[in-house]
Design a protein that fits this description.
By secondary structure, the chain is mainly β. It contains four helices and 17 strands. Strands 10, 11, 13, 14 and 15 form a five-stranded antiparallel sheet that branches. Strands 4-3-6-7 form a four-stranded antiparallel sheet, with no helix packed on it.
């Protein structure tokens, strides 16, 4: 009885979980038996029967794993051919590229982060923390790349930000991490006393009227002294301070300078106006 020739067997494609096998034609063959296994002795194998030569795809395989494939030809009136045996290996699961990461804007309590697109990614995991080891962190999941605003942050504080990409059929990318992003310090707001000075009336949380100090008959009638140079200076033009500013005119100091009750009232007025605008003052 004639023995059929062994078919040729080649691998034409491989992925992390599949192999495409090409089986060559053998004269007189009517079927081909293909077996594959992760064991060289085929102790545990999967068998597929082909009615014609050509390509067959082996699926649901393990990534980065060696597989053994053998094929024999069979036909009527002939002895089965010897097996043709090949050895091949599935590919590694692809790892996505790391997304780019940049700070595009910052304020005292927010950071705007730009996350770059990665081919094959369907989501992006962004983490941020005030700790370099991310021991305590906040996580945001993004379904697409672009800008994301991190809010309710602490002013003038370093933040560590990292992002990774994930997708079906691929290993997550490595994290791309910013060395450090820092929120801005709080910008102090200038507090301005209107040109023309203050009156001897209590501020009660608002700026006082524009009567000048020591320059009007009303001031003289109120007992303000002409040598009150501090208040004359304030009254000369609009005065602007950056907080904190401390007023050091205590009652004892004013008395030592010969200031009368009206002068102390002006001190209280200034302190009240300062407090209304967030100034730190000591009377």
């Amino acid at each position: 009885i004639p023995r059929l020739d062994s078919p040729t067997v080649t691998v034409t494609a491989e992925t992390a979980n599949s192999l495409t096998i090409s089986v060559g034609a053998a004269a007189g063959a009517s079927r081909y038996t293909l077996e594959y296994s992760a064991s060289a002795d085929f102790g545990s194998k999967t068998t597929k029967t082909l009615t014609k030569p050509g390509e067959v795809k082996l699926t649901s395989l393990k990534a980065e794993t060696t597989y053994y494939v053998r094929v024999k030809a069979s036909g009527s009136g002939a002895t089965d051919s010897p097996y043709t045996v090949i050895q091949t290996k599935t590919a590694a699961i692809p790892r996505l590229d790391s997304p780019t990461l940049a700070v595009t804007a910052e304020t005292a309590n927010s950071l705007t982060i730009s996350v770059g697109a990665v081919a094959g990614a369907s989501r992006y995991t962004l983490e941020y923390s005030t700790r370099a080891d991310f021991g305590s962190k906040t996580t945001r999941t993004l379904t697409k790349p672009g800008e994301v605003k991190l809010t309710s942050l602490k002013a003038d504080t370093p933040y560590y930000v990292r992002v990774k990409a994930s997708g079906t059929g691929a290993t997550d990318s490595d994290y791309n991490q910013l060395t450090e992003a820092r929120t801005l310090p709080v910008t102090p707001q200038a507090n301005t006393l209107l040109a023309g000075g203050l009156t001897g009336q209590r501020a009660e949380g608002a700026l006082l009227s524009s009567d000048t100090i020591n320059n009007t008959a009303a001031d003289a009638a109120a007992g303000f002294l002409e040598d009150d140079s501090l208040f004359d200076t304030l009254a000369a033009s609009a005065q602007t301070w950056e907080p904190p500013v401390k007023s050091t005119y205590t009652g004892g100091y004013a008395a030592a300078q010969g200031y009368d009750t009206g002068d102390l009232e002006i001190c209280l007025d200034i302190l009240a106006a300062e407090a209304a605008f967030g100034r730190e003052s000591v009377l």
